[in-house]
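DM from R.C. (forwarded with permission)

"hey, sorry to bug you on a friday — could you get me a structure for this? deadline for the figure draft is monday and I only need the backbone to look sensible"
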Amino acid sequence: MKPGGIALRLSLLLVAFSAFAAGLASHYTFVSSRAMMTERAERYLLSTTEVLARHLHSSLQSVSRDALGLAAHAAARALLEDGRMAPGHSQQADREAMAQAFEALLAAHPGYLQLRLITAREHGLERVRVLREGEFLQRVPERDMREKGHFPYVFEALAQPAGQVYLSEFAVNHDEAPGANDMPSFTVSAPVVSQGRTLGVVALQVAARPFLQDVMSNLPGGFQLYMSNRWGDWLMHPDASQTFGFDRGQRIFIQDTFPEAQGLISGRVQSLVTRASDAYGEPLAAAFVRLPVGAEVEQRFLVLGLAQTLSVIEGDAPVLGRSIVQVLLLVCLAALLMAVLVSRVVTEPLKAMVAATRSMGKGQRVMGLPVERQDEIGELARGFQHMEEQVWLQMAQLRSRHNAMDHLAHHDPLTSLPNRRMVEARLAEALDRADRSGLVCAVLFVDLDHFKNINDGLGHEVGDAVLRAVAQRLSDDLRAGDLVGRMGGDEFVVVCEGLHGEADADPIAAKLQAQFQQPVLHQGLPIQVRASVGISLYPRDGHDVRSLLADADAAMYRAKQSGRLSRPAA
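My reply, with the result:
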């Protein structure tokens, strides 16, 4: 190449232009890819928050069902009614039955603080009260009963219709319960109704922090949890000193840290993703959703949010940047070779590379790269292909995390069985199929007997192993098309479709019972597990998912008391 000649000057011009074009394309690719990764990560953060909100709502519904179940107890109505009692019946027996039911529920749920049965008369006088005192449960003597009619969880619950509950605000408890003072809690109250008359309420007080920790127990690491009430006061915050400030005479609002959250408080938006900084100045990306609670007419809500530092969200950006720098160096090397050759064979592949960078910057798959070439152009094409693979790998990882959260929302993390939400959805589909086919659908509610003894005596690790073994046995014994799910704790549900008659459910239940004749082996240790099974049949025992599950649950409790298989009365 002649010094000062047109070829040298053209080569230098091509080198400079190629290097500039490659740098510009690489910068555009990096900025576009990082923005796309950040946007996808923020959508994932919002979807994770929405899943957590649904989990919180489901947990609140579970507490409400517990309160409603106790409000429907026959002993509760008998204690609160003014009418005559049956011969040989006494209020003491009803009080004992109610106290035992309270103790059983408190024993099953360590986060429940106390239970009260309160009459609508006598200024809301307590009739039965059981509270948690440290590791023990204590029945409050009748002489120490108090009037609670002035508390909202009493007079607001008395105004609720049958089957509805009143959910109090999350607040620091200053009640007289030992061990509960200054503990954040909330109360769920259900009216006790008999023959259209509201006789009183059952009030269930729940410790807020254990309840919320249980809700987020399956949440992946790296998230910060936030929650506020409808006024914006912090209820949950990574810095515990920010929470429940109104109880200390100061108001610390979500709007102070996240100004855009004012839209959630005012109701203008139902969800949002925003940016802020934590107490250490670290930039955050946060997603918040507005979660309605209590009766719809009250228009009460909580604001629930998750946050991650931007360093976590953009954690893969440096890797992408290094890959782009490597590609840029390869482009510069290829540009030098193209300048020397100055041929059409080289310039055409360069155009293909520029088009590929633009396609990748738009999120499109790169096609037509000359990766089969064995020269520097082929190496450059393979470098682009490697960079594309890195970008799509990051996208695949984000999709995988989203799919994991979706699986967590529909399956029990311990047994991998469908959870309550998925069981209810699948059961609703089964009822539709039963309506079309005219066949019978059976719901079998399986509850392990004395499972608490296994947890207390052998430890929770053994208890978890027993639950997994029981889930496997139930799954192995199913017919094709049947469904087994875990409702929570030691409760399972089996849905059997396509039965020709109601009698077809008995062999299935007997077969399930037979599974519990052999002990469960854990590390060579035989553990005898028994179960009570309750059956409800569609359409005989109910016409919707809730009534069928409730009837099967009630039949299971009768079976547990009698030691036999039980179904609702025809």
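R.C.: lifesaver. Residues 83-87 have pLDDT under 50 and may be disordered.
me: no worries. The CA atoms of residues 235 and 545 lie 34 Å apart.
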